[in-house]
UniProtKB/TrEMBL annotation:
PANTHER family: MODULATOR OF FTSH PROTEASE HFLC (PTHR42911), PROHIBITIN FAMILY PROTEIN (PTHR42911:SF2). Residues 202-247 form a coiled coil. This is SPFH domain-containing protein. Residues 27-203 form the Band domain. Pfam families: Band_7. Keywords: Coiled coil, Plasmid.
Length: 285
């Protein structure tokens, strides 16, 4: 009976050990989802990365991993609650040069290119958005938007200036942190209704200005073409005038003209006065 109890106790211990080993083994196996990179930490410090496609083994006692999404990420700033990152208006509020408050809706696209560096700097996407994207967009847009008239800020020119300012500011802030800014797009510029018409007129004037500039460029090219052509004609005329001063050229031209007619000139008499014969007479006459 005692022997049986000993065996049963030993079996129980083996089962427990087996379960522990299995649990530890399962915990030490790591896989990586597509579009992600796992940062490997040793005692809390980032030491390396795991990429999709393989199974990896870690020591759970001293190592752990953090998964970082490396797909392109978008952050939206919108004046419509629920469209942006928050359940409230989080658009960029620009006070234009003529003191008009204009909400600007934007979207930023970025991507993690170095997961380890990104983790060491920001730890999470949420931190990156809060510390880089929002303040960077705000500083870039407000700086240039504040110096722009309300009738210009919604035009192509105004949008382009704000987009470039935001992109440059974000690119500078993200540099060297494991992330790259891919694009900044201006989704909407919400002008007050009483300024919308004036802005539309400004946009139309801008387009007319561009069209007029194109017309001027085309006219200048045509004038240049005609000038080059005229110069060529003048040079050819000068060459012909110089050639006409040579006696041999004049004689050759005289003979050529004679060949083109049906008249033969014959010098007769003491003075060499010419007479002529018409050689274009029908033989039947």
């Amino acid at each position: 009976m005692e022997t049986f109890d000993v065996l049963r106790g030993g079996f129980t211990i083996l089962v427990v050990i087996g379960l522990v080993v299995s649990a530890v083994g399962a915990a030490s196996i790591e896989t990586v989802d597509e579009g992600h990179v796992k940062v490997v930490k040793y005692k809390g410090e980032a030491r390396g990365t795991f990429t999709p496609g393989d199974w990896y083994f870690i020591n759970p006692a001293t190592q752990s991993t953090v998964s970082i999404n490396t797909r392109p990420q978008k952050m939206t700033f919108s004046d419509q609650p629920g469209e942006g990152e928050k359940n409230r208006d989080d658009s960029i509020k620009v006070i234009t040069h003529d003191d008009v408050r204009v909400p600007v809706n934007l979207q930023v696209t970025y991507k993690v290119t170095d997961a380890r560096q990104f983790y060491e700097t920001w730890q999470t996407h949420e931190n990156f958005r809060a510390r880089v994207l929002y303040p960077g967009v705000e500083d870039g847009v407000l700086e240039v938007g504040g110096g722009t008239e309300s009738t210009v800020i919604a035009t192509d020119e105004g949008r382009s200036v704000m987009r470039k300012a935001a992109f440059d500011e974000l690119q500078e802030r993200a540099e060297g942190t494991g992330a790259v800014i891919m694009s900044v797009s201006i989704k909407k510029v919400n002008l007050p209704s009483d300024i919308t018409h004036a802005a539309a007129q400004a946009q139309a004037m801008e387009q007319q200005k561009v069209a007029k500039q194109k017309e001027i460029e085309i006219a200048e090219l045509e004038a240049e073409r005609k000038l080059i052509e005229a110069r060529g004609d003048k040079e050819a005329a000068l060459e012909r005038a110089e050639a006409y001063q040579h006696e041999g050229v004049i004689e050759a031209m005289y003979i050529e003209k004679l060949d083109e007619t049906d008249t033969v000139y014959i010098p007769v008499g003491a003075d060499g006065l010419p007479t002529h014969l018409d050689v274009n007479t029908d033989e039947d006459e």
